[in-house]
Model the fold of this input.
Amino acid sequence: MSENGGTVADAAKDALREMILTGHLCPGERVHQDHLSSVLGLSRTPVRAALASLAQDGLLDYESNRGYRVKQFSVDNIRGVFEVRSSLEALACRVAARTGLAASTLDRLDELVEIGDRILSAGELVPDALPEYRKMNVDFHETIMESAHNPLLKDFVDRSHNVPLVSDRVILWDDFDVIYRSHDDHRRIVKALRLGDGERAAALMHEHVYFAGELLVDRLREDPNLLQHQKYG
Done:
């Protein structure tokens, strides 16, 4: 990849955004331009542009003479965004069912459920399986969002993901029963969408996202540093 204009800056932004949303850069952590340039194998110019853009998006805070720090959100902020996200993703299910999902989309959702089934068939949470499960989860939610064919709705959901701990990349990978329940939601959502039952799919998605938020909020109240010492994405 050659460093030419916005293409490299955009790629740097995407890479840094992923590092924030997956917890490789934790809330409150100071980010160092030179270190990031080295990690990404890029010059300082596109990294500087990426940092400025991420600050505009609300993922970073800038302090004069001190640089950038990953934005921190209160537990109440996190709960509030989960409430919004659960309603928006439920709406996406309702709209997708109303307009009708393509057979190829439904087949893709089935494939993603099967990936989750295979990962969880071990009967335990294997640490090395987390990245694949997380990718499956992201693809599942994004596939449904795309099938709603509503750019404005997708934009609002994407904005909710700019709160790092609310992103669907966050997986608390330490309780098999919780993960199994969450994945069973995926299975039931797909079944409802296949039947064209948008209200059922919407209710399942709302509970799926809302429950994830309540679980995270409860854990954060018990241990505010939970996500700084646990790999979650």
Q: What stands out?
A: Strands lie at 30-31, 60-63, 67-70. Residues 75-99 form the longest helix (25 residues).
